[in-house]
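ok trying this again, last paste got cut off
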Amino acid sequence: MLPTIDKERLIADFLSLTTGSAESLDERRVADLLTEKLKMIGFSESEDDAGQKLGGNAGNLYGFLKGTIPGLPLLLSAHMDTVKPGENKHPVLHADGTITSDGTTVLGADDAAGIVEILEGIRSVREAGLPHRDIEILFPVAEEIYIQGSGVFDFSRIHAKEAYVLDMSEEVGSAAVRAPSLISFQVTVKGKASHAGFAPENGIHSIAAAAQAIARLQQGRIDDETTCNIGTITGGTAKNIVPEQCVCTGEIRSFSHEQALRQIENIRKSFSDAAGAFGAAFEMETKEILRAYSLSENEAVVKRFQRACKELGFAGDLRSTFGGSDDHNFLKAGIRGIVLSCGMQRVHSTEECISVGELMKGAALVAALIQDRM
């Protein structure tokens, strides 16, 4: 059964969450608002110490709500933080039902849209007196800075084995079942300083060595599944000094974790060869930020999504995303999750927007998911 979504309450919640500041590690106001909303719905809730661990002012919010349908809980999740510029946000509701910022900041639909759709979907089912599954909620902090909030969450607290992360652009009714590995790297080339005018032959030009290494590398789209990018290069101390040190940073993304590792080794070899040719030394540090995953359309969490979409008349499309989300950490913890589109558009820009209609569709989808008995 499809409950009635309270449009005015949904709008009020969204405008409240997208007013003010909520940049990564500054989620205190949002966390306090959500704590009260979870209590009003009937959740038992708690906040962890992620803020202390990460240097922020709020922790991850966890909630549990007992249901009446037997079985393990479903985990619903959306993050509390926004990207910059996200201070002193002022949402604007337009006559056609579109919501934007005032143009000076992001709107914050990423991910306030997911949050309000979760809250309103659950409230609509509860107020209609309809049966629903046990529900677990996780509203993480610091998602936008490489999913750090959920990265320090204690997943032994979670009983769910399936999750829906509402954190993807485009119209409600699609889900990402595949996402990439992301490995960041930093290469430091160490040469030898010398006066560039009087004795350049006595120096070892670290920037030249790094440039040769970079020139030999394929960047951009490596293949259909993989990208490589060197994003920053810094080095040298003065224009008349042979630069002693050059530091390069970048990232590899790939739907194949093995391919990502191969690309890292290609980078390592290119810098090693170039440094050797110049008589320089080099060091390379890597960090796995995300681990690639792919879910089959036959998995229960996917089938439930497609049943709910069919009931609501939504497309139910399955797709890939080249971005990261808290779902990466859920999969790492053994929770089979997919990422749902929640209607936001042009995210990570001051042109970010969403329509009231998409918010209502997202809430209806949540309501259908938590009522599913399979």
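PB: full thing came through this time. The chain has ten helices and 17 strands.
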